[in-house]
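Backbone-to-sequence.
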């Protein structure tokens, strides 16, 4: 859990630098790419993020419960399943599955999520779907994880920054980072009078950065889900251990009571026998 948090947090400065550079470019050219284009929603791609393994308490069931609700309230849904539990769920519900991914591992590198990001980006640009929504688990504290539904495409820069900010837990280790000032999309350029020379053109740079930010956002979502999974499994195992100890104590008490009752019964029978034979 800690390792997953550290990996996610270590990538935040890089993501904020990309946001800052994008805000600089926006002043020299209109920020308008295919990935930021709002369209009438005819088809929606739903990305469901679960774990590959069980024994994590209600971690997976909560995600799938939210997915059930989303599917009930929306039509024309395509699905990308991330994690074996999501794959099994999609097959059971006979959903229109575009792709399935599993085995990302505990401490994934950005390159490991490129196939997932490529599928999402290429499909959106080709207009196979008009928006992309993710359902994944947000890590708040070690004892609290929350399932969130996020719209990642068309991209909104402030939503990207919010996702990056949410990587910091509310309490516990790393929560002190909440006190530090994060880069703002709107106020990231301190000197507005500076002139820049761009190679290649601002439009090409903006398109590349927006594409990269989508990939980083998906990477952060997977990392956040990993940290939540490890936390949920740790809490579930601790609860199971505590329950086992409690049950063991109760059973031991019942055993001692039964044993004492048998000893008392045997003593009574011995005394009764002595009285019968007149000893």
């Amino acid at each position: 859990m800690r390792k997953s948090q550290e990996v996610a947090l270590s990538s935040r400065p890089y993501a904020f630098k990309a946001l800052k550079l994008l805000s600089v470019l926006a002043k020299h050219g209109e920020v308008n790419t295919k990935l930021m284009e709002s369209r009438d929603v005819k088809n929606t791609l739903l990305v469901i993020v679960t774990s590959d393994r069980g024994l994590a308490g209600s971690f997976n069931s909560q995600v799938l419960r939210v997915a059930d609700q989303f599917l009930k309230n929306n039509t024309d849904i395509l699905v990308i399943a991330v994690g074996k539990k999501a794959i099994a769920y999609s097959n059971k519900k006979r959903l229109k599955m575009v792709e399935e991914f599993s085995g990302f591992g505990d401490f994934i590198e950005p390159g490991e999520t490129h196939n997932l990001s490529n599928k999402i980006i290429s499909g959106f640009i080709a207009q196979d779907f008009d928006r992309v929504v993710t359902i994944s688990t947000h890590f708040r504290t070690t004892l609290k994880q929350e399932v969130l539904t996020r719209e990642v495409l068309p991209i909104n820069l402030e939503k990207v920054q919010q996702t990056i900010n949410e990587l910091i837990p509310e309490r516990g280790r790393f929560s002190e980072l909440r006190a530090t000032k994060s880069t703002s999309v709107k106020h990231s350029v301190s000197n507005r009078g500076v002139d820049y020379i761009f190679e290649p053109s601002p439009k090409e740079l903006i398109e590349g950065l927006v594409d990269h930010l989508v990939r980083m956002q998906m990477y952060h979502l997977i990392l956040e889900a990993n940290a939540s999974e490890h936390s949920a499994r740790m809490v579930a195992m601790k609860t199971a251990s505590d329950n086992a100890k409690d049950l063991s104590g109760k059973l031991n008490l019942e055993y001692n009571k039964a044993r004492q009752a048998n000893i008392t019964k045997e003593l009574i029978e011995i005394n009764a026998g002595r009285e019968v034979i007149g000893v």
